[in-house]
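User: what does the whole thing look like in 3D?
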Amino acid sequence: MSNQQRFSYRRTFLLIFVFLVLISISFIVAIVLARKLTRKYVENEFQARKTEVLESNIASYNEFFQNRIPEITYYQGYLDSVGVAGYAESIFKRFPFVERLVFYDVEISGQYASHGVMANNLALSPKSVFQFGPQVNKDSIRLYRRGQNRNFSLLMADEFNKMALKFAGFLEEVDTSKTINNDDLFKIFYSITPGKITYMNIPRREDIKIYKQLMFTSQPDTSTYEQDILTYYINPNALSINNTRPELYQKVEIRPLVYESLDTNPDLLTAETPLPGALADYKIYFSSDRTFLWTEINRRFMPVAATVIVIYIFLLLIAYLIYRNLNINRRMFKLQYDFVNNLTHEFKTPVSVIKIAGNNIKSAKQLSDRERSHYGRILDEEADKLNNLLNTLLSFTQIENKAIKIKAERIDLHEFCRKIVDAYLLKYPDFDLKYNIDHDIKGFQTDPVLLGSVFQNLIDNAYKYSGPENKYLRIEILLQKKLIVFKFADKGIGIAKKELDNIFKKFYRIQSQYNQQGSVGLGLAFCKELVNFLNGEISVESVVGKGSIFTIALPFDNKKNVMP
Amino acid sequence: MRVRLARIMLVVALFGVFAACKRGENQGQIPLEDFFKSPEKEAFRLSPDGLHISYLADYKHYKNIYVMDVATGNSKRITSETDRGVGEHFWADNEEIIFMKEWKSDDTVRLYAINRDIPAVRNLLPPAVMRMRWVGPARVWNDELLVSLNLRDSSVFDVYRLHIKDCRMDMIARNPGNIAEWYTDMAGKLRLAVASDGETETLLYRETELSPFKPILSNNFKTAIQPIGFSGDHANRLFAISNAGRDKMALVSIDLKQGKEIASIFKSNDADIASAGYSNISGHVLNVVYDTWRPEHHFIDKRMGKIYADLRQQLKGYEIEIAETDTAQNRFIIYTYTDSNPGSAYYYDAPEKKLLKLADNNPALKGKQLSHMKPVRYTNRSGIKINGYLTLPKNSSGHRVPVVVIPHNGPWKRDTWGFNTEVQFLANRGYGVFQVNYQGSTGYGKHFWTAGFKEWGGKIQQDITDGVHWLIKEGVADPDRIGIYGAGFGGFCALYGACFNSDLYACAASYSGVTNLFTFMKEIPPYYKPYQRMYFEMVGSPTADADYFRSISPVFHADKIKKPLFIAQGGKDNRSNVNETNQFVKEIKKKGTPISYMIKEDEGHFFRKEQHRLEFYRKLESFFNANLKK
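Assistant: Here's the predicted 3D structure for the full assembly of 1194 residues, as structure tokens:
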């Protein structure tokens, strides 16, 4: 029997050990892998997020380019220096990367013009040229005015000429019966070179028709038409750079397109993305040291690691619970085995006494009156013992299964205690058993049978586990707030501290000289079940060799119980 | 099983109820196509002897000329044009009809003559890229017809005398460049011209075609002298509608030799004289028409007055317009209408008092329940009385209804009482329609008109806003369900409302609306140069008033638009730049404001193709349904 037990115990332990080793290995592998993947992910992010940063940084450039430049067309060529001054101011205020603005007030006519571009009969000539900018000196706002300035420097004329020639070329080819598509508009009316955007207001279809007519037919018509050309000088360095991903990029800078870092640190990660349109000879340059990224890697790794740890702990917990259940089951098995053993003993003694008595009666030729009453008493007593034993077992099972019901009635505690104590004193004349009831308590609503069982068990135990000269028990009944408390104080052998937790368990018996025979270890467990069944609690304090105090607390309803 | 069956039956029953409700709601809704159907027969013309009636009707999807014999009532088609339809036509004499085909840009003018019995078409003009204007009245004298053509110079119109039999053409007046209109006397001689340098209008007169034109009267463009016709009794007298020296237009006679107004024949204290009926046979003014809340007729010619009274008797409740008359002034073509009835065309024989219906203007709407147009009047913030019209949906309570405000185009025009398809369509869809003759509208005198000068975004918009507030105060309009919609200048009002009165309007719809005043001013073409200064005074100058233009042009204020917007626009619209509208729409879209944009690349200022017009109104209907019926 014990061999088998040891064998099964060992096998469980081995299984659990293997399980623990396996999950620990999995845990370590998971942590290492997660860490590696996170690092890879963050380094990929470093490359992938640059467009996002780029977009947020050139949002203002895009707004300027998409909304504020085409706004010039709204003025339909009617802009003058005053109008542009106001417009320019709002541009400089909002878009600091626009450094300077040159405005060509252009006249289109069919007459010869000394300065400007002639295409067949069509003349595009600047009436005046102005420049605006935060750095532009007040005296140098006007660069040119027809009739006043002789010189129209080539440098100044460059943008104008480019635009005028492009426009003339467009007029030559354009089919005025069709609407011009957006691609063409962009090609003709925008000229974008690094650092410069030149834009001419887009004329109406009708105007284009007229211009084309002017170009190809010589007319006496002296009408003039107005177009506006604006050149915006862009300084990409003035683009305010905002690092929207500070966790990824240590440094975000605007650098010339040809820039390469000379830093030889192998742990320096870099990325770059060219700027669009007029900013095109510059790029955004991103750099981060690997150690800088560790913070971000760790930040992202933490939740992953935490999850893995939680899963690991959870698995450990389950292993522990399985182990504990196995253990309990093993002990249960042992207890039941002991129980059967005890019970056999318990039944054996009365049965063998009955058998002896029966044999004696059978073999005796004649029974004297004294013998007959002696055997009768023995048979009666042993039968009672067996009956008690069976009753206890039966009611215990019933209570455990909640198969009985509380039959509550009002009892007089004095009467109740006196009966029990009298019965015991009759049975054990050497028992120093007394009770004391708080005089506030008159009656108590409870099931007298169940309470009686509890008393019996505790009194029996007190008697049983006391030395022959110390058969002593004091029962105190008192009120504590809404509880009625029963204290059973004896001077018995006491209970060791480590045993205290177990004494209320089923089939548990303290190994001692006092219970060599006639105990199944059900008494206290039965008491506990009863008390719990009555919604109360049972507890014990004990000092080995000095005695124990069992305390039972039951709910006490003042209204029901105190008032007679 | 039984439970399930019962449930299904309940669902079916409920569905039946909903369907019934839906049907109830739609009851009385007239299909969109019915409103905007073009008439089957139109442009009725009476032959000089009054025995034949010509008209235009479809043949293979193009307008062609049909001639009806009044005596028999039989009609026959005489033209078979299938490349483009007939635009205008009139009787040269009792036999021949002159007609012009629909004109397209960069194309020659196609002017033809055709005999009513022999289907042979004669081309009257040599092929050349040019435009033609009639020299009024369009009439043939001794086989001769006067037309003005920009043949010599695309920017000026000279007058030619066209001999319709041999197609010979003589220039009889060379336009120095500033002549805007020409007039003939009763014998068909070109003796009167109106010159304009934009700010000043000058009346030029000559006694015979051989003598040179001499200026006789000059005035600022704010003063108008509209020639009606030469007097039949005095060779040097002219009938005209004039507001020279008075606030409201009156019928006057002018001595052309002295260049002086000699008599005021008729005037109204309430309104400008809008038009005058003139007989170029007798040389008499027959009647004048002026619009108070509805058209008023005053007859100067006693006989015509009597004929009109007879007609009134026969066509009770109808508004009557005399459109055509024969030479003897016995037979007429008349048109009728009311505010809720598109009306019909009739032939009327005055001596016989016989009325013959020629056609219904829109047979699809015949017998349909349409809404009445009620005149309303309110006081604006400066205490000026403003007139308008309110059309409520049929069977409406008139209490807290959803309202569509339609400011008229122009702005130098006015809304008048009569049948308005657009208004009826919206009223039929359950909207109250509010029309306002804001300051700057014509018809209420010079002062009222000029009060709207340079008041775009100013007094004009204030008057509209005040009108809407008045309508809310009267309890008619539901303040949460007011939309604004308009075409041209009306579209500008809608966009302006969306930009600057977004609390007042739940949504705005612009049909070819003016989005940018700079572009609008650019529209004055080179040969209208004289008008530029006038426009500067009426609207503003794009250079001197640049800040003002910028502050009111919706295109600069896309960011202020918060309410749903609908924009419809033709790709070839000269009054606005499509690129600019595209940019405007893009900006609004980027701001996240709901906007629907309908662009038809091949259309001009207004949609000409019927399918495009129907599509537009369908979209307009669903736009208002989505935003005003919540």
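In plain terms: DSSP finds twelve helices and 35 strands in chain B. The radius of gyration of chain B is 27 Å.
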